[in-house]
Structure formats: structure tokens, C-alpha cells
Amino acid sequence: MAITATNLTADLGANDVTMVVNSGTGFPTAGSSIANPGYLVRIDTEYMLAIQQPVSGTIKIAMRGYNGTAARA
């Protein structure tokens, strides 16, 4: 599986469950639902479980601090 790199358009708070990125390319198709369990997103040392890209460039997060990592701003 290829790794997709992009940048956030704004800071992400420790409790945020939606992030907006510069490019949704490389993520599952906008508007589609993702099969369980979702897909991993990593920012710095935190892993998150993402579940959907409702519109291009917006990623919905189901779980912050996935797999024992710390949710951080």
C-alpha cells in the first residue's frame, strides 16, 4: 500500500475528529464510506483511525490516539 503525504490546512486540536488537508488525492474517494475498520492516518507520532472523506480534502476520524499513541494538538 502506498503512503500518501499531504499537509493540514489548519492546526488540529487534540479532540478534533475532522481534519482538512491540502489534497484528498490518495485517500479513499470523496463521498464513499470506508469498510471497517477504516484506514490509518499519521501526524507526527499520533496514529488516527479515519473512516471517511465526505468531501474532497476533509477526513473524518473515528479514533484519535489509535494503537496506544497519544492524541495531541
SSE layout:
Elements: E1 18-20, E2 39-43, E3 46-52, E4 58-63
Antiparallel strand pairs: 1-4, 2-3, 3-4
Amino- and carboxy-terminal Cα gap = 27 Å
In one word, what is the shape? globular
Counting helices, strands and paired strands, the structural category is mainly beta
Strand order of the largest sheet: 1-4-3-2
Rounded mean pLDDT score: 85
Share of β-strand residues: 25-35%
Helix content: under 10%
A few lines on this structure:
The protein has 73 residues and is mainly beta. The chain has strands at residues 18-20, 39-43, 46-52, 58-63. It has a four-stranded antiparallel sheet with strand order 1-4-3-2, with no helix packed on it.
Structure overview:
The protein has a four-stranded antiparallel β-sheet with strand order 1-4-3-2, with no helix packed on it. It has strands at residues 18-20, 39-43, 46-52, 58-63. The protein has 73 residues and is mostly beta strands. It is globular. It is built from no helices and four strands. Helix content is 0%, strand content 29%.
